[in-house]
Amino acid sequence: MRVAVFNTKAYDRRCLTEANAAFGHDLHFLEPRLDLTTVPLARGCGAICVFVNDRVDAEVLEALATGGTRLIALRCAGFNNVDLAAADRVGLAVVRVPAYSPHAVAEFAIGLLLAIDRKIPRAWARVRENNFALDGLIGRNLHGRTVGVVGTGKIGALVARALKLGFGCEVLASDIVADPALEAIGVRYVDRRELLAEVEIVTLHCPLTPETRHLIDAAAIDRARDGLVIVNTSRGALIDTAALIEGLKARKIGAVALDVYEQEADLFFEDLSSEIVSDDLFQRLLTFPNVLVTGHQAFLTEEALEAIARTTLASIADAEAGRPLANRVDTSLIAGSR
């Protein structure tokens, strides 16, 4: 099948090309992101392949359908950037990669927590200037602290298990459905409001839906314990950035580690080192010494990239052959990912 692959980087092209040896698709790699102005690049392609910050709204979907596209292949787990109702209306199937490597994101989330809690980035910056003083670098043990895990799908469950069994934390969890395997090791499920009021650390691993958008807002921060540490490797819009900044300024929030940001589409995955970044909220975040931000790289391991490529190309092959699409997104859903 002829496939337009939008928003590609060198690592995307390498992994997809290697995996495609087993499938033989006609892959056309494109650097631009998908939006209404770049839709014509997909004309004549039966499928397109997109990533988290590509625009796949109603206008784009209608243009794709008119140009002959019949399949949207997301090389990610999340699909909150896709208008599923519009896709259903114009006859476009949507597939995703639901579980490429949950270990990659889970490990990165714990790495962020350790880095911000033990002030590793600040220590590294000092040593590069031959400053070996330890003043201001006092951290805290994870052992014995109360950690909240919001969302216990594949990634969240790994994080909860590691924190409970590996670090000896008291772990509270919140999800629509409790995981009996986590309950069996002592993870306690509570209401999300109760969780945010009790924990010292919260790590987010839930879908982005209308119900979870800005689940960390001014009210949640006000209810939280003083010094709350927040980790987010899921979706940026789970956190109200303006409220987060106010919480940091008031010293209500102790530290923040983010791999995602609610307005990241204009920033992440691009080299803007010679540009003026006009996002005032993002720039304000970077001024805090107790904030650590990375550019949506939690998924970025060799194992995850290989799994993403294989799963994506296999879904395209299934669509071309008329087979059932195991990874098809249910178009009755509004938005989300795990």
Order of strands across the widest beta sheet? 8-7-6-9-10-11-12
Number of domains: 2
Tally of DSSP β-strands: 12
Low-confidence stretches: 334-338
Major sheet size, sense and barrel closure:
7 strands, parallel
The portion of residues forming beta strands comes to: 5-15%
CATH hierarchy class name of the largest domain: Alpha Beta
CATH topology of the largest domain: Rossmann fold
Number of helices: 12
Task: Give me the CATH architecture of the largest domain, please.
Answer: 3-Layer(aba) Sandwich
> How do the helices and strands follow one another from N- to C-terminus?
EHEEHEHEHHEHEHEHEHEHEHEH
Shape by Cα distribution? globular
Helix content: 25-40%
Mean pLDDT rating: 95
Rg, nearest Å: 21 Å
Distance between the termini: 29 Å
Structural class: alpha/beta
| Chain oligomer state | single chain
